[in-house]
Amino acid sequence: MRPIGNWHALVRGFGALALGDGVARLPGIVAILLLARRLEPTDFGVVILGLTLMGWFSLVVDSGTEALGTRDISRHPERLREIAEPVLGLRVVLSVGAMTLFGATAWAAASQSGDRIVLVLFAAVLPATALNLKTMVLGVRAAKALGLSNVASQVVFLAGVAVLVRGPDDVVWVPVLKAVAELTYAALILAALRGRFGLLRPRVDLGVWAVTLRQSLPLFANGLARAVMFSSGVVLIGFIVDRHAVGLYAAAHRPVFVSAAVSGFLLVSFLASYSAAGRDESVQIFRRTAWLGAATAPLALGVSATSGFLLRLVYGESYAAAAPVLALLVWIVPIVLAGGAYGIVLIAANQQGRLLCNNLVGAGFTVIATLAVVPTAGMIGAAAVAVAAQGLVVALNYRTSVGLGVAPPLGVVLLGRSSARRTS
């Protein structure tokens, strides 16, 4: 098995993930566009609110185990079965509790009975997410299988939307189709691993669960904090304004969400390669990752300048009012990509607690600032807060990781001077 602790392995892993995700996003994007055009902003807002809440509660199901598993399996690929099976068992148990909490939250979030039914049905997605190993398989060089499984799941979702969702009366099908697609994703990954590792099954191991939760809970809280920073605008606008505003904000937010997901693949590939790299190689991996992220700034500038045209072209005239929101939100992508490595190295160095503290500051800032500005500045205010929060967290992670000596300072990244010491 070829080593993964180098830049070329990172590029191969990211390339396979990005290509698979990019291909998968095509049917996914088409599905979202169909929903936006067939449902109009008001009902589209309900769907996006459900998807956002589903994403938040999926973090409860995962509880940080994906990032932890990616790190551990990358270091010990021969132990995939030993590591993965207890994780699957733990996730299945967590999904039961998450479904209950999701149902209660969704019921309280909606004022109309039809909206409540749609939102509550999104809870059915959670057990399927529990069985999805996703990026944990990078450590055994299964990026291709991961990408293909993602493609298949999105095709299933698109086909269902195209056939079954014709108008507002069919919106109830959306969460059902999402659950089927997620189950397809999980099943195909497990099938791809079966030839090398046998059929992986959820396993009860209370001792391993306790250790796993102790190590992964900071990552869970960290993921939840980041989700609050990135998507709380959707939820808070829904509570403070109305469903129509949610639909408009979601139209601008969705392409940024997709881009951020691809950004996440670069950073998780960075985690896998950086965790397995030697001291000298790790600094080069860090520098190149940061430069690659910074290279997306010109693209963000182009999107920002043409946001109105793009929204009219993609969604239609009824979504044009969201142009200023897209012009702001798109800057999240270069900020996260260029500065994200300073947070990832804290995971590699087993400093999840410090990463959590920084993201909690960002999440607190997001909620407080959004609540303060939305009543007067509306969607534009929420977008500005989201961008500012990402910049704040990157600055905090830079200070922490450089101060601990686990990441190179800006001078090294820009000019390649000296190198930072690294803590494993």
Describe the structure.
The chain is mainly alpha-helical and 424 residues long. The chain has one domain (7-415). The chain is 81% helix and 0% strand. It contains 17 helices and no strands. Helix 6 packs antiparallel against helix 7 (173-197) and helix 14 (332-339) crosses helix 16 (352-404). The radius of gyration is 21 Å and the shape is globular. 54% of the residues are buried. Residues 418-424 have low confidence and may be disordered.
* Secondary structure tally: strands: 0
Percentage of residues in helical conformation: over 70%
Head-to-tail CA distance between termini: 22 Å
Q: What is the structural class?
A: mainly alpha
Strand count, sense and closure of the main sheet? none
Strand content: under 5%
How many separate helices?
17
Mean pLDDT: 84
Residue stretches low in confidence (pLDDT < 50, at least 5 long) are 418-424
Radius of gyration: 21 Å
Question: Could you provide a short overview of the structure?
Answer:
With 424 residues, the chain is mainly alpha-helical.
Summary tags:
424 residues, mainly alpha, 0% strand
Write the layout of secondary structure elements.
Blueprint: H1 7-62, H2 65-75, H3 80-109, H4 113-121, H5 126-130, H6 143-164, H7 173-197, H8 206-240, H9 243-276, H10 279-294, H11 297-305, H12 307-314, H13 323-329, H14 332-339, H15 341-348, H16 352-404, H17 410-415
